[in-house]
Amino acid sequence: MSTIIYPRIYLLGNSPISPLLAYEISRLPTQPKVPDVVLLLQDSKKLQRFLDNDSKVCIHKQDGTINEQQFMASCNLPIYSTGEIAQINNLIACETSSKSLTSSLFKYRKSIKDSTNLLLVNPPFGSIQYILDNVWKSNASNKPNIFIGMNKFNQLETKFGRLYNEFHLKLRANSLNLLISQLPTNFNVGVSTLTDHDEDAAGTGNELMKTLKETERNSRRERSDRTSLEFQMVPFEKLYQIRLERLIVQSCIDSLSLLYDCQLNNELLHIIAQPNSILMDLLNEQINILKKSYPFLENQNYSNILLSQNRLFNVVVGLLEKNATKQPMVLHLKNQLNQTPINELTGVFTRLAYTNNINCKWNKMVTELVRGKLSLLKKRSLNYHYL
């Protein structure tokens, strides 16, 4: 029986998902002691800190166990001994913002070819088109095979796990479930269903998808020290519907939680239950912006259901009720003075509205109020007059 040789996988990004994927791929049975997984780090300083940490990534489980694994790492393009730039055949990008995702891919674009398999995990809405227009527009012949992966369940990555000391991941869940779809070649024209394919046909024969599926199977063999993984291939149209709904719902919940300084989700639930709640104005405006920015949505069978104001309102209320006693997902970012994703929330609709000359007074107001509030909070924390 021949031994299966797994391809080299490169990972980049600051998402908590990145170290977990690296660790689980490294546990495949035929991986060498130092696995054929390469971490692409931000710069030479971070690389040096990684080397000072004995080149290890540490996974802290919920039961208190700690798993460590050494990895190869770099902060530069892979280069052969001859000085020629090497191709990256399989790349997983797990960035948390459009800016960092674009800059990272631009940095390694010379190693990314048309045969490269690129998996974007939870890319911010709008970042995919931006990448296509700014990273590969001038060299479309080198555009890779792009796959989109996103959390199956409506939760932020910070709920799944938290990074601390850069190379230590503390898990908050025992499983990771990703929906994956291949990006249609005509994505910039509109949504295209993967016709003549079943749900997993897009990944058939692709070495990156094969490696992920084998990693999934391996994660279930020894549940005692593994995080259960699931990678489910779905048609792009289905994935796009989920992304649209999640963008609307999350932008309303997170933005309003920051605006009203909610400590628990039931506080926001109390606010939006009041007559003339701003939530309905936000939803109505966001639906209008999406329909005018993406005219092809009107031609989709699911449009009237997906973009129903009453249905989306009920989804928001349902999520808040289900998690009533939990803290808002963005609260920890505000408390730690980290960059909060307001530009990836209502800021998305504001940019779309400006680009297409659409009224966006409600989303603009919320975006600017939250941005100003967070800026002032950071200024106070760093100003000795407030100590």
From TrEMBL:
Pfam families: ApbA_C. Gene3D superfamilies: N-(1-d-carboxylethyl)-l-norvaline Dehydrogenase, domain 2. GO terms for biological process: positive regulation of mitochondrial translation. GO terms for molecular function: 2-dehydropantoate 2-reductase activity; NADP binding; translation regulator activity. GO terms for cellular component: mitochondrial ribosome. It comes from the Eukaryota. Residues 240-373 form the Ketopantoate reductase C-terminal domain. PANTHER family: 2-DEHYDROPANTOATE 2-REDUCTASE-RELATED (PTHR43765), CYTOCHROME B TRANSLATIONAL ACTIVATOR PROTEIN CBS2 (PTHR43765:SF4). This is Ketopantoate reductase C-terminal domain-containing protein. The lineage of its organism: Eukaryota, Fungi, Dikarya, Ascomycota, Saccharomycotina.
